[in-house]
Amino acid sequence: MPDTPTFDGRVVLITGAASGIGRACTQAFLERGSSVIGTDINPAVETISDSDRYYGIPCDLRDENAVREALASGAERFGGVHMLVGVAGIFPDSKPLVETTLESWRNVMAINNDAYFVLLKEAHLYLKQADDGRVVFIGSKTVRAPGKNSVAYTVSKTAMTQMARVAALEWASDGIRVNVIHPNRVMDTGLWNDDLLEARAAAYGLTAEAYKRENLLHVEVLSRDVADLVITVCGPAFAKITGTQIPLDGGNIRVI
Length: 256
Fold this sequence. Notes:
Elements: E1 11-15, H1 20-31, E2 35-40, E3 54-58, H2 64-78, E4 83-86, H3 102-129, E5 134-138, H4 151-171, E6 177-183, H5 194-203, H6 208-212, H7 223-234, E7 245-248
Parallel strand pairs: 1-2, 1-4, 2-3, 4-5, 5-6, 6-7
Helix pairs in contact: 1-7, 2-3, 3-4
């Protein structure tokens, strides 16, 4: 089995492609021969690559029609959609449950969960026609080990994970495999800023630098690390695996 899977002639749609993990995934798939449909609410998604195998589409995932049109437009340009990588998400201000507003709760759920319900529904036919459809969602360590001051984020990622598990059960007969990766503390993404990092570190009584590497291996997980694992999950090594959840956290003692 080759060490580096290739995806010549395959098409992947990646959400959140303008920055962080989504951008790293975009680059990784392009390097391996795939055509990439990149979506993001940031219009800069149109110009993050000049490859003729890249098509960037500004898209608000909360808009059902926009999601449907992005899939149709990308499929028309490249001839289909074989893989779906769900990266886009938000992490609101770090606050205790009792201080979390209903408005903030609903906004997080709309983007981190509801949008992916729509995306899965709209993408199913394309993935089924691909014969070897693949879905990878980017979850979170908090699904298995929730943290303080992040109730909306934790619940939204947990709901997304359960949705992926249901899709794995229902879509196996269509030849579609669905898996979830749970990274932790990937700081080189648009999800994080200095204020959020300081707030999360303070919640655990740590400095910002110690917080980044608070795992058994004392390593920092980067966007490219996540992208490399996404490539592996979409490749031949996972051809007979669906419905699984994979931690990418340097070894989190609460998860283990």
